[in-house]
TrEMBL record:
The gene is cmoB. Carboxy-S-adenosyl-L-methionine binds at residues 91, 105, 110, 130, 181-182, 196, 200, 315. It catalyses: carboxy-S-adenosyl-L-methionine + 5-hydroxyuridine(34) in tRNA = 5-carboxymethoxyuridine(34) in tRNA + S-adenosyl-L-homocysteine + H(+). Its EC number is 2.5.1.-. This is tRNA U34 carboxymethyltransferase. The keyword Transferase applies. CDD domains: AdoMet_MTases (cd02440). Catalyzes carboxymethyl transfer from carboxy-S-adenosyl-L-methionine (Cx-SAM) to 5-hydroxyuridine (ho5U) to form 5-carboxymethoxyuridine (cmo5U) at position 34 in tRNAs. InterPro entries: CmoB, Mo5U34_MeTrfas-like, SAM-dependent_MTases_sf. Homotetramer.
């Protein structure tokens, strides 16, 4: 089982303390409902990872942990096998004692695109909604955040995060909580809230924006990254059953529409700081994620279109204040 006791102790002393009124019961229910053979196997993999404290830890330029004395060949093979048992790895990469976890997404590229534009994270308490393996949580700590909290209800992602945390010396500055944002009380407590790759999976994008706003303190900053389309104000794509083979895609706004949604929800100082088409170098199959990836989701005769005939994925980063 995953022990959240350290997180409870940390937030009991800060502005997140009101969360303790609901969170322990939620997580107890989540753990009871999540027990199955796969979850037990993933927990077993974490338990068998060695307790290692890195001699060199770089979270500013990457997520890299090293020992001055290299691990033995046997230990390297054992750790690689245990991490592979937690596949598929969607978000990364991680460099752990010369083991390179080459995830499907080059999440470091997204981080490089947005960090020049966001407010300083030094000493901040930050929330990452839909954090996946928690890659960006470690980069937020590298950028100076005091506490980085990721939320995502998927048990595999929690296990991937806990495996990485163990190999980083059981670092307690970042925590993964397996809940959805709709399950959180209105904390109004985070300095910065990130929502990256989540909005288009929401049946009601405006509800999602209000939920993000409810987590920010009075002067907090939102960093939102989402799929967008070329188009005018009030235009948005509502795909059919699938978009780029994803089933649960509801609304993909134009950039003016996204700005309008943010304005309607009361956000201020809204800026678009990056627009990027997703490339086959940024999202691809690897040894750590062998199922279909972007190349399989695009029209083989025209990579400007998805297999369904929609415009190929393009993403934009929006920054706004509460």
């Amino acid at each position: 089982m995953i022990d959240f006791g350290n997180f409870y102790q940390i937030i009991a002393k800060n502005q997140l303390a009101p969360w303790l009124e609901t969170l322990p019961a939620q997580l107890s229910t989540w753990q009871k409902n999540t027990i199955d053979n796969r979850f037990n196997q993933w927990i077993n993999s974490i338990d068998h990872l060695p307790n290692i404290t890195p001699d060199v830890l770089d979270l500013l330029h990457s997520v890299t942990a090293k020992k001055h004395q290299p691990l033995s060949e046997g230990e390297t093979k054992r750790i690689t096998h245990l991490l592979m048992s937690l596949s598929p790895w969607r978000k990364g990469p991680f460099s752990l004692y010369d083991i390179f976890v080459d995830a499907e997404w080059r999440s470091d590229w997204k981080w490089q695109r947005l960090t020049p534009h966001i407010g300083s994270l030094e000493g901040k308490t930050v929330l990452d909604v839909g954090c996946n393996s928690g890659y960006h949580l470690w980069r937020m700590i590298g950028a100076g955040a005091k506490l980085a909290v990721g939320i995502d209800p998927m048990p595999l992602f929690l296990c991937q995060f806990e495996a990485i945390r163990k190999l980083l010396g059981n670092d307690q500055r970042a925590h993964f909580i397996p809940v959805g944002i709709e399950d959180m009380p209105k904390l109004n407590a985070f300095d910065t809230v990130f929502s990256m790759g989540v909005l288009y999976h929401r049946r009601s994008p405006l509800d999602h924006l209000y939920q993000l706003k409810d987590q920010l303190n009075h002067s907090g900053q939102l960093i939102l990254e989402t799929l967008v389309i070329d188009g005018e104000e009030h235009q948005a794509l509502m795909p059919g059953e699938r978009y780029a083979q994803m089933r649960n895609v509801y609304f993909i706004p134009s950039i003016p529409t996204m700005v309008n949604w943010l304005t309607k929800c009361g956000f201020k100082n809204i800026t678009v700081v990056d627009i990027s088409k997703t490339t086959l170098e940024e999202q691809r199959k690897t040894d750590w994620m062998t199922s279909d990836s972007l190349i399989d989701f695009l029209d083989p005769n025209d990579h400007n279109k998805t297999v369904e005939g929609y415009s190929a994925p393009m993403r934009a980063v929006f920054i706004a204040n509460k």
